[in-house]
Amino acid sequence: MLNRMNQRDMTATIYNFQPADPAPTPPARRAIIVTKPLPQPISAAQPVRKTIDVKAAAEQLGVSTTTIYQLCREKQIPHIRIRARLFFHTDVLDEWLRSGGTLSSEALS
């Protein structure tokens, strides 16, 4: 009989747990406005870059860097070599494009 009583008591007992201290409510959200500084006008202290590297030249021409290196090796594109690096004058490269990929030998050297 003791067994039955314990079973009844256990099944009849309902536990209702409530936290003693509810979780704090988060503070109200605030909008954060991020402003970027305005770009500085180009002055004499910041000269306009007139040369580009192989990657930029490849993007401008729409070809791969391998093609640019090959054109330089075959002396078909006007470029400047400084030690192991290749550079291109943007003005000369634009003129080379306008002329259909051919310029005088003076521009290629």
List keywords for this structure.
elongated, 38% helix, mainly alpha, 3-stranded antiparallel sheet, 3 strands, 109 residues
* Percent helix range: 25-40%
Percent strand:
5-15%
Number of helices: 5
Please describe the biggest sheet, giving its number of strands, its sense, and whether it closes into a barrel: 3 strands, antiparallel
- In angstroms, what is the radius of gyration? 37 Å
Mean pLDDT: 75
The separation of the N and C termini measures: 111 Å
Spell out the helices and strands N to C: HEHHEEHH
What structural category arises from helix and sheet content? mainly alpha
Beta-strand segment tally:
3
User: Order of strands across the biggest sheet?
Assistant: 1-3-2
Q: What ranges have pLDDT less than 50 throughout 5 or more consecutive residues?
A: none
- Which descriptor suits the 3D outline? elongated
Fold and architecture overview:
With 109 residues, the protein is mainly alpha-helical. Helix content is 38%, strand content 9%. It starts with a helix and ends with a helix. The longest helix is centred in the N-terminal third of the chain and has 11 residues. It has a three-stranded antiparallel β-sheet. It has five helices and three strands.
List the helices and strands and how they pair.
Elements: H1 2-12, E1 51-52, H2 54-61, H3 65-73, E2 80-82, E3 85-89, H4 90-98, H5 105-108
Antiparallel strand pairs: 1-3, 2-3
